[in-house]
Amino acid sequence: MKKTALGVIALLGAAAVVLGAFASHGLKESLEPEQLNSFQTGIRYQFYHVFFLFVVYLLPGLSEKTKSLIYHLVLVGLLLFSGSIYLLSTKAVTGIDISAVGWITPIGGLLLIIAWFVLAFRYFASKSHS
């Protein structure tokens, strides 16, 4: 699990760089400033959570079960949160309209928040913290 998860995390980081470059160079002329800002919000949150996952996997006192739970919460959270933001903000360019299911964006955000709370809870519940 660890090797696969770290590979996926690295790919998420690479994808965030590619999406950032695409936003700066390919979408800048095609999107309204508000839409571009939304797209960049999705990228920022993707980057934040890539770093978060790397830190989680480097923490020695965290069980593999907890790491896996956090990993899956973040993975689904990013798909719903950042993924829906990417699609919602590029509707004018892609023609893909997911506005009817735009409610998945806050669900993705909630999953990301829960992942942070799981880390906090597990940390405070452990006997190894000072």
Automatic annotation (TrEMBL):
UniProt-listed Pfam families: DUF423
Cell location: Membrane
Family from the record: Belongs to the UPF0382 family.
Main location: membrane
InterPro entries xref list: DUF423
Protein keywords: Membrane, Transmembrane, Transmembrane helix
Domain of life: Bacteria
Transmembrane spans: 44-62, 69-88, 100-125
One cellular component (GO) term of this entry: plasma membrane
Membrane topology: Multi-pass membrane protein
Protein name: DUF423 domain-containing protein
PANTHER family documented for this protein: TRANSMEMBRANE PROTEIN 256
